[in-house]
Description:
The protein is mainly alpha-helical. Helix content is 71%, strand content 2%. Strand 1 (3-4) and strand 2 (9-10) form a beta hairpin. The relative contact order is 0.11.
Amino acid sequence: MQFDIETFTYDEDWLRSMAQIEASCDEIGAGVDGVALGALIEHPADYSRVVAAQMLVLRVWQAWVSEWTLGVGTQSAQLKGRQLLLERLKTAESSLQKRLLSIVDEKYGQAQDEWQLTEVHQQAIRQTIESVLTPDDWNEIAKSACDRIHTQVIAHQTEALSA
């Protein structure tokens, strides 16, 4: 087995060989920006927990933004938020990181088919999102959605004029 994206499980030898290939290419692209190669090689299980926590945050973020009914601006807001969240999670307070990792640990403690993201988990992750994103981040997310809507409106206006 190599890396299973669904369960975030992997073969440790495979992970070590991928990290060595990346090191020889001077390219650290193991899926999470900012991960130190040495730490990844020494503690691959911790890396898996971090990736799983990030995926949970991004899943909640995507669902949350979808609830805002932004129409054509939804995907832009999701993508901008994703980018900002991944940056902010790297430097989040350790208490927030521990909270996310405890949710991941709870997930790993249950059978894969039994685990669901409960409302309590979603609320904790939303609170984490609210904590790590700055007011400037929220403005960037809103601007991204607005820019997409603006582009769509102008495109329709251009089509109407040419018809």
